[in-house]
Amino acid sequence: MVAPPPPPGTSTRRPAVPVRRSRLATARRAPFWVLLTSGLVALASAPVVHLAFTDRWRDADGMLPEGLVRLTVLAFFALVISTPTALTSLVLAIRALEEAPVEDVAEYGGGRRVDLVWPDRYATRGRITLEELPDARVTATRRPTGGRILPATVAVAGEPGCRVVPRLQPFGATSYEVTSEGPAIRVTVAERAGGVDTTFEDGRGTRLRWRHRPVAGVTRLTLLDDHGTAWWVRRTGRTSVRAELPDELDPVAARALVLVAEDQMTDATRHGSVVHIPGRDVGAVATGGD
Questions:
Q1: Higher local confidence (pLDDT), 285 or 167
Q2: Residue from 226, 177, 217 nearest 32 by CA
Q3: How far is CA 277 from the centre of its chain?
Q4: How far apart are CA 99 and CA 105, in angstroms?
Q5: Which residues fall within 8 angstroms of residue 243, CB to CB, at 6 or more apart?
Q6: CA-to-CA dists, residue 42 to 70, 214, 284, angstroms
Q7: 80 and 214 in contact (C-beta within 8 Å)?
Q8: Which of 11-25, 239-253, 274-288 has the highest mean predicted lDDT (pLDDT)?
Q9: Which of 65, 88, 104, 275 is least surrounded by Cβ atoms within 10 Å, i.e. has the fewest?
């Protein structure tokens, strides 16, 4: 028996299903690998150093064999290096657990793929690829230290482009101004106790919301639309970002959203140790009208 079609105007998307995952499963892996490696080195070196202080391998004159002396020296230096490394990585692993999310999304929506690629980490000219649409050229501004920074301009052959400009706040998260020839693209950024909330509206009825915390190692953002469907933006490399966004999201807005998300992930990592003031709204900017 075939189920009847849904009433007109009813969304057929399945809502995002949050599932509980332990912090150990979602934490950054690098500190744990360093902790494991340095711990094994320390455990292997300690018995060799201890053996050198016993009389078991000494000759009648109290001297150790030449090979054991060399091995003891290597073990001593390995122990000196691995012990503080293990302690440091333990602190970093604990911090990674504190920063890791305890929730994740079991299922994401399937929409339009967006890729942002820069030639290298210092390049100010890149490319945004949007499925079934022409590629866009991105031109950013160079940071005084040599890296790249917003504002950035997106130029598309035969289509309207846009410009994404950050509005830095002295005591809060960065807001963004998006200018384009089409409908007004609205970016609202508000800092709350649990993180930074961002609402992105493309001016054509599609709205996406997400939250991130200003901590080091933010490489993925989970976005929710008004239907409860989850979408994502993630960093796939030091010079590339990939996103899966709704098909109905305006192409100009989709390119601007990826630039905003990349800047937020970079800024969160760069200022992960900065203390932010919770509960401060940094404002909404509506720009780019007809």
A1: 167
A2: 217
A3: 21
A4: 17
A5: 113, 114, 115, 116, 231, 232, 233, 234, 254, 257, 258, 261
A6: 17, 34, 53
A7: no
A8: 239-253
A9: 275
Question: In the predicted model, what is the mean pLDDT of residues 189-212?
Answer: 90
Structure token digits, residue 21: 């995952």
* Secondary structure letter of residue 131 according to DSSP: T
Summarised one tens digit per residue, pLDDT across range 214-238 is 776 788 899 999 988 899 999 998 8
Tens digit of each residue's pLDDT (9 = 90 or more) over 163-195: 999 988 776 778 899 999 888 999 999 888 768
Q: What is the pLDDT at residue 11? A: 45
User: How far is Cα 136 from Cα 125, in angstroms, rounded to an integer?
Assistant: 11
- pLDDT tens-digit readout, 27-39: 778 889 999 999 9
Task: Please give the distance of CA 163 from its chain centroid, rounded to a whole number.
Answer: 22
Residues listed for the chain: 290
Q: Fill in the DSSP letter of residue 4.
A: P
Element (H, E) at 277: none
How far from chain centre, in Å, is Cα 123?
19
Task: Compute CA distances 7 → 11, 12, 150, 248, 285, whole Å.
Answer: 9, 10, 44, 20, 36
Which of 250, 19, 238 lies closest to 123 in space, CA to CA? 238
Q: Is the pLDDT of residue 267 over 50?
A: yes
pLDDT at 279 over 50: no
Q: For residues 279 and 223, what is the distance between their CA atoms, to the nearest angstrom?
A: 21
Q: Which residues of 133-143 are buried (b: 16+ CB within 10 A; e: fewer)?
A: eeebebebeee
Residue 10: other Cβ atoms inside 10 A: 7
Coil vs helix vs strand at 97: helix
